[in-house]
Every structure is written in C-alpha cells, then in structure tokens.
Amino acid sequence: MTDDISLDSLYEVRVADELRQLRAAPVRLGDGREDALLCVHSAHPGVDPGQNHFTLPTDTLKLTLVTADEDVRWTHDVGEGIVPGVWFCPVFPFDLDGDGVDEIWYVDTEDPSHPFSLTGHRLGRIDATTGERTGMWEWPDYPYEPMSMAYRNFIFGGHADGEPVLVTAQGTYREMRLQGWNPDLSPRWETTFARDDPGSRGSHLCPVLDVNDDGVDEVLWGERLLELDGGEELWCADRDSWSGHSDIVQPTLDHERDTWYIYTCRESHTEEPPRVVTYDAAGERVWSALDEGHMHTGWTARLGDRGRVAMAGANKHAAYDEMREYAWDVFTGDERTLDYPVYSTLPVDLDGDGVHELVYEMFDREGRVVDHRGDVLGDVDDRVARFPPSKLFDLPGEQFLTYTEDGRIRLWGDSNATDGDVAHQRYAHPYYRKAQRLAAVGYNWRNVAGL
Asked: Which residue intervals define the domain Rhamnogalacturonan lyase family 11 C-terminal in the entry (predicted)?
C-alpha cells in the first residue's frame, strides 16, 4: 500500500443473513435528506436467462434500503414469482411523479406460480420511504424468442424539457421493444426494432444522457441514439455494416471541448469488422480498430500520464493469462501500452485527484486494487459487487462496493482522500447521477468512468 492512498472500509452494514449476489443504486429521499443506497440482493447467485447458464433459484430477490448512518430502513421481498437475476428484474430509482423523492421501479408479477409467464409480469412501484408497493401496471409483451433472447428486461428514464419520462424495454439480441411512459403512467410512445431491421442490436448497457444538449435526454440503445420525448431514432451508427450486439457502449466526455464520444466494443457477429469503434455525438466514426475478435469487456478511464484511455478485452472463455487486452487514446485511437493486466477491472478515483485507480472484480485477482501505473495498493477479501465505483454518502473520493457471504456490505475508499477540482467537476455533471442511477439495470457498471 502506498503512503498516499489508505485503502480502508469506510462504511459497513448488514442487510441479510446470506448474500450471493448484490446490485445497488443511490436513492434520492428528498426534503434535504441525504441519499440512501438501495441494495438488490439474494442468497442465490444471479440467474442468467441463457439456457447454458440458468440455475433454479433457491432464494428470492430482496430490495433493502440503507442510510448513510449504516441503518437498514426497510427490506422488500419481491417474492417467488420473479427470478432473482438482473435480466428478469431490473431495478431503477426514479422520480417520475416529480415530488422530489425517487420511486423504486422494478418487474413484479400477478402470477407468482409461473415465473416465466408471458402475461403475469407487471411494472411495479415501491415507495422509497416505506418499502411498500404502491402500484402495478401491465408489463409489455415479450418478443417471441428463445428464453435467453426474450427475458432481457430494462427500466430506465430521463427528462424531456424538464418532464420525467420512464422507459421499459425488452430484448437485446434480436427483436427489441421500447415503451415510454408519462408521469401518470399513460403510454407516451412505443418503438420496436424487428429482428431483421438493419442496424445494430442492443447492448448490456443503456446509458442515458443529453448528447446534443437540446434539453431532451437520449438513450444509447446499442449503437443507436433514441430521444426520450417521442422514442425517435436520431441516428444508427454503421447501420449498413453492423448488425450485431455491442457488449460495451460507453459515452466519454471531452471536457475541454465539451463534446461527447461514444466508445463501443462489439461482441457478436464476429465476421463484421471493425470490433472496436468510437463515434462522435452525431454517430459518425472517429476511429476504429481490430478486424476480428469477441470483445467481451472494456471501459474508458483517466490513467495519469497515459491520458484518457480506452480498453477492450477479448476471449472471455480463455484462461485468464490467455485473454487479449488492447488500449488506445479514447479520442484519437492512438495505441497505448498498459504493462499490467486490466481485463477484469473497474475504474475508481479513490483519492479524488482526477486519476483513476482500478479494482479487479473477477477471477483470482478479485478485490485487488492498483494505481494507474499498476502498483498494488491493497487487497480486499470480500466479493466485489456489480456496481459502478463512484461517490456515495458524501464520502471523500469515490468508493467501490463489496459484500460478504454472511450478509454484510462495505464501501471501500481512501481515508486520506481530498476531492480536487477535476473530481468536483465530474461529480457536478448531470451525467454522473444519471449513470449511478442505472447501476441495478443491466451491466451499467462502468458508465461513470466516462466522465
């Protein structure tokens, strides 16, 4: 551990007797109260809808709200009718009614005896102050696809000229359906992409931001940009040359030029090059790299004298030491050399200096923390949660979230941290909060680092 960064547990609370999966997202409670943290957890590992990955659940999904003073405010058991996995039950805190307090939106059911029911699932709403369910509305029909393709649920939202818009969505790899909802839960719009429509499929990420600064939020749905006011597609990048699924779609802001870039890593359709592409805010290519490979992971981060770096990792089924890693300057595409492994890392600015450290989230290095040079800062024995490392509870610097099998969650950070000007600029940007809010939906664990 270096003399500058002191890696310590800054927060701990017990949320269950056993934890085998954990997602989380900050929740706004209004009336000047400090944000809480919503923990989405189960004693059964996360269940994937893929036939080769699915396991029969032995526990239900729970939602637990914890406060900054390490207090458990409430726990809501979703029940046996909902499979405990992110693709079956996304969870999204969002203030749709405009009262200053987030509601908790998730997938519920009126037919708990049939967890794969095509007609029983519902959009559920929970009061964030009490943990009580306050309503259910019909969940839109699933695409008629194999199980792994159909059960890919998303809930997200944003604003159109100040008015909140909630969005539900189904599908990723083939047919994709999205629906916009007004504050009174009346339908606002519906957009469907048929299986054979040209252009990209979806991503495991669904970043929401105002790319063109027109007062209307957009969502990056794969390599398409859809505005949330009417569900209209503003652009589809590489429409005629890319029809696959992108594992990573990460907006990255050039603060000096106040311009967004969209960094993508492509997984499927490996016969369609290139495999890594960065676009500008209008969906035009800025640079691309690699003609082949299954790009399974990636991020953009601030790595000190290496600048703003884009990373991609390939070969998810290979042994760890055989995985291929690549790096470039995120804005120019110039190659960068990283002389330490980064495949399973998440960026986190622990000390608030505007430079990212990296925490390993998987494999034999899980829990190890290194600085931007690859020097080891420390090791954490807990499991690393699928959560975007970011600033929580007004603790100094950014933190990453861990959990233990006996039900405790912890926030780890630098007890010596002091937030500098660059860090404050990142925290104050509207996208920071939007990215945090998506943490319990899909695989939106890396989005914050794009700032």
From this structure: 161-304
